[in-house]
Design goal:
By secondary structure, this protein is α+β, with helices and mostly antiparallel strands. The protein has a domain of about 110 residues: 3-Layer(aba) Sandwich (Rossmann fold). Helices cover about 40% and strands about 20% of the residues. It has 17 helices and 20 strands. The strands form five sheets. It has an eight-stranded mixed beta sheet. Strands 17-16-18-19-20 form a five-stranded mixed beta sheet. A three-stranded antiparallel beta sheet has the order 2-4-3, with no helix packed on it. A hairpin with a 2-residue loop joins strand 10 and strand 11. It comes from Xanthobacter autotrophicus (strain ATCC BAA-1158 / Py2). Belongs to the class-II aminoacyl-tRNA synthetase family. Keywords: Aminoacyl-tRNA synthetase, ATP-binding, Cytoplasm, Ligase, Nucleotide-binding, Protein biosynthesis.
Length: about 500
C-alpha cells in the first residue's frame, strides 16, 4: 500500500509567524498611532485585502503579467483580482465609489496587511502591516505640511525622542523637471522614468555605486539575479546622482538651489521648466508653514528624497530615524526610513476622469516596532496568562461547578479558563505553568463539601519552592496555597493578581 501523504509543516518564504510579546507590543503601538491620527481629525476606514487588479493602477511592476509584483488570481467571472499592494490604491477606489456621499476633504486612516510578490530577503517580507493616513480633496500644500507635522508627532507619541528622527520633504515636480531636462519627459518614457524612480529609491540600500548600475545597464546581486537598468547615458546618470547626493540640488531655508558643476545648458533648462519652478515654490510654502507651527527642526526640505511609485504628483516625504545601528558586517549605518508618502492627485482621477487632489503617508509597522525595540521603547503587556481552574472531577455536575467559577471570574474582568484537556493533576499543573498562569484554582470533593476552593499562587509558590530543598518538606508546606470560601473566590483571586501586578480586562469595577 502507498504511504499516506503527510504535508510538511513549513512556513512559506517571505512570511513570518508572530506571537505573544510582539503582538502585544504591536497593539500598544497601533493605539498610540491611532490616538494621534484621531487628534488631527482623521477617521477610521477598512478596505478589503483583495481589489480588482485594474483598480490598483499603472504603477504596478509589470502590466503585461498581472501576477508580477502582486499576488493575483482569476475570479469565476474571468476577472483578475489581486491582494492589495498598499493601502492607498484601495482608498482611491473607495473615494471614487462613494464620492458624492463623502465630506471633502475626506480624512481617513487605515491599518492592515499589504502583500508584495517580490523576492524575500533579510527584513523584507511578502506580507507586512502598514498604518496610513490620507487627506483627499485638499489641493493646498497646507495638507502636505500637516501630514508631515503629524508624522513627527506620531513618532514622538510612540517613543522616538526628538532629535532621533527627521521628516524629509521634496517635491516630485522638482524631479519631473530634472527628468524632462535630461530627455525623459513624455508618455513614451514612462517605463524608463519608473525604472529611474525605483533605482534612486534604493539609494539607502545600495549606495551610489548600486544606483549608478541601476540607472545604467543594470545590477547583479549577490545571488546572481540580474535587475535590468534604466539605460541612461553617463551625463543623464550624473545629473540624477548629483540630485540624489545633494551635489546638484541643494536645500536652503526657502527651497532648493541648483548646483550642476558648470552644466550651463541643464541649469538653463531647469530655470525655464514650469514643473521644476512650481515644485520649488511649493517647497518654499511647506517650509514656511511648518516653521509657523514650530516644526522647522523636525521637518526639513531635502531634494534627495524620492519615493519610488509613479503615482506621486507633488510633495513627497519620508520620516527617517537618524540614530545608528550596525549592519550585517558590523558597520555603523543610520536606521533609515520608517514612514513615507506624498501627494497623488491622479489616483482618484483614474476612476472619475477629473482631478481629485490627495496626500497621505504610510508607516511601516514592523520596521517602526524594530526601531522602538532598538531604543528600548517597545512596550508589551506583561506575559501573564489566565487563571486556570483545574478539573479534579469529570462528572457533568462537577464540570458545571468549574465552569461557573470561570464565568464568575470573567464577569469580573479576570482572565480565566477551565482546563479542557484529558490529563490528571500533574499534566494540569504543567499546562498552567506553560500558560504563564498566575494562579490555579483547585476544588476536589473535600473542598466542595466544605464550600471552599484552594488557590495556589504559582508565582509566589515558585519563589518559596526555590528555598525548599527537601521534597517531603515541599509537599508538607504546600507553598503559597490557601483555602477560601466559594463566595470569596473572586476577591481572593483579585488580591493575588494585585500582588503580582497582573492586568485585568477592566470589564467590571
Amino acid at each position: 500500500m502507498a504511504k499516506e501523504f503527510k504535508p510538511k509543516a513549513r512556513l512559506p518564504r517571505g512570511l513570518v509567524d508572530r506571537t505573544g510579546a510582539e503582538l502585544s507590543a504591536t497593539r500598544a503601538m497601533l493605539e498610540k498611532i491611532r490616538a494621534v491620527y484621531e487628534l488631527y481629525g482623521f477617521e477610521a476606514l477598512e478596505t478589503p485585502a483583495f481589489e480588482y487588479t485594474d483598480a490598483l493602477g499603472k504603477f504596478l511592476p509589470d502590466l503585461d503579467r498581472p501576477n508580477e509584483g502582486v499576488f493575483s488570481l482569476k475570479d469565476d467571472d474571468e476577472q483578475w483580482l489581486s491582494l492589495r499592494y498598499d493601502l492607498t490604491a484601495p482608498l482611491a477606489r473607495y473615494v471614487a465609489e462613494h464620492f458624492e456621499q463623502l465630506p471633502k476633504p475626506y480624512r481617513s486612516y487605515r491599518a492592515g496587511y499589504v502583500f508584495r510578490n517580490e523576492k524575500p530577503g533579510p527584513g523584507r517580507f511578502r506580507q507586512f502591516m502598514q498604518f496610513d493616513a490620507d487627506t483627499v480633496g485638499a489641493p493646498s500644500v497646507a495638507a502636505d505640511a500637516e501630514i508631515c507635522m503629524m508624522a513627527a508627532d506620531t513618532l514622538e507619541a510612540v517613543g522616538v525622542p526628538r532629535g532621533a528622527y527627521v521628516v524629509r520633504v521634496n517635491n516630485r515636480k522638482v524631479l519631473d523637471g530634472v527628468m524632462e531636462a535630461i530627455g525623459l519627459g513624455g508618455d513614451e518614457n514612462f517605463g524608463r522614468r519608473l525604472t529611474v524612480l525605483r533605482a534612486i529609491d534604493k539609494f539607502d540600500k545600495f549606495g551610489v555605486e548600486g544606483v549608478e548600475l541601476l540607472l545604467g545597464p543594470g545590477r547583479r546581486d549577490e545571488s546572481g539575479d540580474f535587475t535590468k537598468g534604466a539605460g541612461l547615458d553617463q551625463r543623464q546618470s550624473a545629473v540624477v546622482l548629483a540630485m540624489l547626493t545633494g551635489k546638484g540640488l541643494r536645500a536652503t531655508d526657502v527651497g532648493v538651489e541648483v548646483e550642476l558643476d558648470g552644466d550651463v545648458e541643464l541649469a538653463a533648462a531647469l530655470a525655464s521648466n514650469s514643473a521644476f519652478l512650481e515644485g520649488m515654490a511649493e517647497l518654499r510654502d511647506i517650509a514656511a508653514l511648518v516653521a509657523a507651527a514650530g516644526y522647522q527642526d523636525r521637518v526639513k526640505i531635502d531634494p534627495s528624497v524620492v519615493r519610488g511609485l509613479e503615482y506621486y504628483t507633488g510633495p513627497v516625504y519620508e520620516a527617517e530615524l537618524t540614530f545608528e545601528i550596525k549592519d550585517e558586517e558590523g558597520r555603523p549605518v543610520r536606521f533609515g526610513s520608517v514612514a513615507g508618502g506624498g501627494r497623488y492627485d491622479g489616483l482618484v482621477a483614474r476612476f472619475r476622469g477629473e482631478k481629485v487632489p490627495a496626500t497621505g503617508f504610510s508607516i511601516g509597522v514592523s520596521r517602526l516596532l524594530a526601531a522602538l525595540a532598538f531604543l528600548g521603547k517597545m512596550e508589551a503587556a506583561p506575559e501573564v496568562g489566565p487563571v486556570v481552574v483545574l478539573v479534579m472531577d469529570k462528572e457533568p455536575h462537577r464540570l458545571a461547578d468549574y465552569m461557573k467559577m470561570v464565568a464568575d471570574l470573567r464577569a469580573n474582568g479576570i482572565r480565566a479558563e477551565m482546563y479542557l484537556g484529558g490529563g490528571g493533576m500533574k499534566p494540569q499543573m504543567k499546562y498552567a505553568d506553560r500558560r504563564g498562569a498566575p494562579a490555579v484554582i483547585i476544588q476536589g470533593s473535600n473542598e466542595k463539601s466544605a464550600g471552599e476552593v484552594q488557590i495556589k499562587d504559582l508565582v509566589e509558590g515558585a519563589k518559596i519552592a526555590a528555598s525548599i530543598a527537601d521534597n517531603a518538606e515541599y509537599r508538607a508546606a504546600r507553598p503559597a496555597q490557601f483555602a477560601v470560601k466559594e463566595e470569596d473566590l473572586v476577591t481572593a483571586i483579585r488580591d493575588v493578581l494585585e500582588r503580582r501586578a497582573a492586568p485585568t480586562l477592566g470589564l467590571a469595577d
